[in-house]
Amino acid sequence: MINTYGQPLFPDIKYCARCCMPETNEGMQFDEMGICQACQSSEQKIRINWVEREKELRKILDYYKSLNNEYDCIIPISGGKDSTFQLHVLTKVYGMRALAVTFSHTWFTETGKYNLQNCLEKFDVDHVMFSPSRSLVNRLARQSLFKIGDACWHCHSGVGAFPMQTAVRYKIPLLIWGESIAEASGRATHRNPVRKFDRDYFTQVSAKRYPEEMVNSEISLREMSAFKLPSVEDIEALGVTGIHLGDFIFWDDERQMEFVRDVYGWKEDKVEGTYKNYKSVECRMAGVHDYTKFLKRGFGRGTDHASQDVRAGLLTREEAFELAKKTDTERPPALDYYLSITGFTEVEFNAVMREHRAKVTAGGGLTDAAFNEAVQAYRASQVKP
Amino acid sequence: MNARTPMDLAAATATELLPLLKSRAVSAREVTQALLDSIARNESKIHAWTYLDPELALRQADEADRHLAAGTGGKLCGLPVGVKDIFNTSDMPTQMGSPIFKDFTPGNDARVVHYLRMAGATMLGKTVTAEFAVHAPGPTCNPHHLSYIPGTSSSGSAAGVAAHMVPVALGTQTAGSIIRPASYCGVIGFKPSFGLVPRTAMLKTTDTLDTVGVFARNVDDVALMFDTIRVHGIDFPIAHEVLNDPARQQIGDRPWRVGVLRGPRWDDAEPYAQQALLDFGRRLREVPGLEVSDVVLPDSFNQAHAIHGTIYDRALAYYFKEEFAAHTLVSPVMYDIVTRGNDVSVAQYQEALKRQTALAHELDDFLNGQYDIIVDLSTGGEALQGLESVDRPDNCLIWTLCGVPTLNLPVFKGPLDLPFGAQIFSRRYNDYLLLDFARHLQANGIIGANTALPPFTA
Ligand SMILES: [Zn+2]
Ligand SMILES: [Zn+2]
């Protein structure tokens, strides 16, 4: 048998020359050395004057404090590590009076519940949470697979829309997220950041589909209220602005995780689909989300994390490919739960994903046959006697 | 340590200082002040520091004293550390040895600096680096003889530790930038395995080579620093597994299998240095528990320098294209490297990376089951005269290329009575095994428990 240790799963796909990100990742762009934007961003960060950026942040925060509203800002939180870190920075370092806002995906793990509760207590902030009905979530989780190829439209869309609704309702024009999209997504760099938060931005980055598009014979428009963005007029009248902390302060999410873990008692846990124990720890469906990404694009969360480790000098590229293959190709136990709430059979699930893969990788070197062959060969090579 | 004069405090190792600090026999302020005094006496001759703010250092020491008094200090509480000036620091500029970044304030800490601060250490100041940690040397002089080179690029860190200005310091190695300065300055230098210490928020020169390491005057100090700056836990599954694998990290009942190497650059070493290594091999044969034999590497390792050169030049050209564009502020040596690198095609670069991986595996196979430790010269002799001198060719970069852990032992003196060292290395990821071997040598009197030199008088 050919030794494929340290080789990428799909030999016909182009991968970043430095990390493990494949060309099938959304918005992927390689430079003349074949290096991806996320890798480029990680170098730009060392040459950026973060003192200047921090001054910009301070100016923005001071302005919103000076408005003397009931709340200075909204911090959308999920209970993940970024939530705790955002609350630390904004309340402890900058003294912002924040309203924490959570859109509940309703799939909280026990660790996720603990982490959310823990940060609310540690930071003593007011909190608003919206939880859609369980049956609606189940129906949307099914429709989501057809429409966007993962289980989580309600989550992607709710975390964008609900905090915006809250902003308009409570007249709090500033929303503050955590990680910059220049960090790992590969969709921007620190030299070309995205700082525009309109209706289209959210849909493009996260939800992919407007709520109207999710309506079918089983889902009515009037059930979609939590997912609708406020009107353009309302957003503009209030002057809603959104910022990512990661565009203003040097972001090292692993270091931040260790910090909130060691200082605030934030808890890690095993997460399906990756070898790291801290991302999406709050969601029991994370493994399904990442597995669908793998079925669609040929890589999952393991690849994202391994690529980050390569950038940080913590893995060789071949070690990274090996770790990524192992976690990306694993069928997550949570798939059983997903099938049970949506009524899909596994055959149906795979058929839907096959169609998404065909769309994503058209002309991209990842035919159905190539996909299956590579995955089967890899799985066979992993079987221990 | 009984006498606690300021001179003693400046010469003490971290392992000696920490219990004194913890028991409040001395304060962090006293220790920091003793080091600042030592710097004040000698810095105008040695030039180890590129940024030093005594008040900032003392403020950190006072903070450490508050923690020590309250019993809330971390395991390095009150320990002053020197930081090579390519690591970001939130409260000091990071200039990377380049006029382009003069007074640049990044506004954050490198992850390793953060780890050290969380452990309670105080950042004494920033130490001199070669321009962008490459070749153009900084102003640092060898503390043993001021007109001799200290070795690049972590020169300030090595000289500062040697001259009793700071007990421990951070460095980095892309070719030989820890081992060489440690050799010339007569201190212990440690470059861990590639993949154990995070590089976040520090200057990147070459992806597959840059490795963070430390300088100290005692093996236990090295271990203490390494434990603090390396990654821990199951979020790093490979490191977690190998570092906790007794089969890799412990020798058990059998003797140490030690190879004495005549490497690919043997002929470039001075005859006295060759002789010193061979004599050292003979001395090791008398140390209990060692099985010593001679080693010659397979021929493929003769390619290592060419592979390293291709990767290094191309990567530097890529990462420094902005600085290169502003070429009036870039040194001629940097300019030459980048120009060379621009001539390397992407295909040649990719091929060189593949060969790096292959060579790393070959070294691993070669060592696995045959040798626990290989002993090599750190440099081909003692330091050279003239601060612009270029090092003799040596094997350092091969061990960096292969990602193995390597440690300089200050064990030799040259004809001018200047120090140079032997380096010992092991399989990639056998870092604790390597440190254990160094301790074994220390226990048998081959290296001292505090390799501090006589107080600096040049
Ligand atoms: Zn990349
Ligand atoms: Zn989800």
UniProtKB/TrEMBL annotation, chain A:
Gene3D superfamilies assigned: HUPs
Provide any one GO MF term from the record.
Answer: transferase activity
InterPro entries, per this entry? N-acetyl_sugar_amidoTrfase, Ni-pincer_cofactor_biosynth, Rossmann-like_a/b/a_fold
Q: Does the keyword Transferase apply?
A: yes
Q: Classify the source by domain of life.
A: Bacteria
Keyword annotations from UniProtKB, A to Z: Transferase
Which interval of the chain is the signal sequence? none
| PANTHER family documented for this protein | EXSB FAMILY PROTEIN, NAD_GMP SYNTHASE DOMAIN-CONTAINING PROTEIN
* Protein name listed in UniProt: N-acetyl sugar amidotransferase
Q: Which organism is it from?
A: Pseudoduganella armeniaca
TrEMBL record, chain B:
Q: Which residue ranges does the record assign to the Amidase domain? A: 30-435
User: What InterPro entries does the record point to?
Assistant: Amidase, Amidase_dom, AS_sf
Q: Which domain of life is it from?
A: Bacteria
Q: Please report a single Pfam family linked to this protein.
A: Amidase
User: What one GO molecular function would you report for this record?
Assistant: catalytic activity
Its recorded name reads: Amidase
The protein's organism comes out as Pseudoduganella armeniaca
The root-end lineage is:
Bacteria, Pseudomonadati, Pseudomonadota, Betaproteobacteria, Burkholderiales
